[in-house]
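Researcher: Please generate the 3D structure of the following complex. Treat every line as part of one assembly.
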Amino acid sequence: MSSRLKLCVAAAFAVSAAGAQAQYSDNVIKIGVLNDQSGTYSDLAGPGSTVAARMAVEDFGAAKKGMKVEIVVADHQNKPEVGSSIARQWFDVDKVDVIVDVPTSSVALAVNQIAKEKNKVLLVSTGASVDLTGKACTPNTIHWTYDTWSLANGTGTAVVKTGGTTWFFLTADYAFGHSLEKETEAVVLKNGGKVLGRVRHPFPSSDFSSFLLQAQASKAKIIGLANAGADTISAIKQGAEFGIVKGGQQFAGLLVFLTDVHAIGLDKAQGLLLTESFYWDLNDQTRNFSRRFAKLHKGAMPTMGQVGVYSSVLHYLKAVEALKSDADGAKVVAKMKELPTDDVVFGKGLVRQDGRKIHPMYLFEVKKPSESKGEWDYYKLRSTIPADQAFRPEKEGGCPLVKG
Amino acid sequence: MSEVFGIPTQALFGQLLIGLINGSFYALLSLGLAVIFGLLNIINFAHGAQYMMGAFCAWFLLNKLGLSYWWALLLAPLIVGATGVVIERLMLSRLYKLDHLYGFLLTFGLALMIQGLFRHEFGSTGLPYSIPSALEGGQNLGFMFLPNYRAWVIVSSLIVCLGTWFMIEKTKLGSYLRAATENRELVQAFGINTPRMITLTYGFGVALAAFAGVMAAPIYSVSPLMGADLIIVVFAVVVIGGMGSIMGSIVTGFVLGLAEGLTKVFYPEASNVVIFVIMAIVLMIKPAGLFGAEK
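Model: Done. Output below.
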């Protein structure tokens, strides 16, 4: 192809893309669900998050209100470079207005910068790093469901107060694991506990026996699992095999989802303390919602990450409806911070200036097999952490958006 | 207590034993690959998927038919091996005259399809599978708590590996196999049905993978991706040992398990790359692998 011809083709593409933009931004709200569709985090987020996003669009009544909403899905494979290139493609070429979910903190932090650069919206549900509302906060991102601080605060405090004073960490070797370990260590030390050691395992890992032996040798009372998904499952299962619990040590799952407990089985998971912002069996509203969800998702109850996608998409649509525009990402997020949140999964809440969505967190204990009435009946509520104490105080995060 | 580089020797023994357990899986899997490559000249990339199928087969036998682990140990390799025979007859047998790459692409494609199907059906977190009651509990060895099941893994994989080696290197059947590896046409001219032998060899290699899968089911979650992560490491083991070398793959499997175990003590962050580093070094010094014959 001659260089002149190439130029003409390029120009034609540029013109058609520009034409598409004007048309789309006015007529279609495009939501991109970006998560792990096939790997270690695909059961706790994955296709279930897409189901949740669809439910939100339906419950919002977009069709009746004459708003055209489209959902696209992509698999970031838990790799920041893959997630970044999808995000750029979505924002630049496919005219996606908002990206939701984004598990794996390293990917969430990468997409966070891109959303700001392109002035779009990012609603993180399953990603965990508390930095998203701290030093990495932007006017375009809201962190919805939970974060490493709230998990550390919930489980860490409860465990130390009930006598778990010495800790050993098994930490996934990437941004999320480091963040969770750091936050939990701070909580442990604040409450008078001690950290005896740590080991950072590759992410993902399938064999934990070596790390478990190191934990065993440390003689720490508590083995804190600063990892998630399949890693947590393997660590707990193999821990049972190596007699960790029988030897008098206990696991503290710092990020455990309902689907993880389902995979571990109650006989091995019983007694585990964990912090979540949602459980299907909390009240009538959550039960109704979850049963609807399960019908659409092979009978599996939703995880907090998945309901977070529901809740965040619903609130986004409310803000866009109020603004009558989705063009300016920062404006939409400002509107979302202005409007109070209210939905069947988290109840009433709000979004803070630093982009932190606020609602209660719950400390659960995994039931004994004899206490469970059937499939998915796994948790009993130990305590509720009120919304105003569940998350890091706004001033401590160092987010430049917070004034005063 | 005496120490080596700041690590108590007792802890070190524990880690070495753990390395040996992981090495058992590497050895079992790389052995199957070596057998298949040796005779068929096929780089069987579906090996990881077949290992996973073995684990799922055990799960099915237990949960749908009520057959215990011990039955699974016998039946799963037969069932999965039979699927291997079908694959060889229908697809692989058409590729022997072509370049390695075609077999590699075909089995790689198969692996992706099989894993995709299982993932679609069962999700990615995996299914629970309990340790058989006869092997529950463990022994306190003084320097570590060794679960009985892990001890069983080492012993049984050693038996299977050495049995396979014996069969191929020391029996008449094995001599036919080795002869067919050298010159297929000539062996056929002596009246030996080589196509059938090749089919059965592929089935046997696949059955070994399924056997490893059943062994792995109680330790790791039975999940669609369990083979995908492992297979890359196992290929590295085969390459280090020398493609097609039976003893090479067994010894290398165990030794690399040990090397990985030690890395997990001294520098855990590197434990998932150490095998590839070793591979790179070995290939620079001895391109045919440690036990491979230079051609």
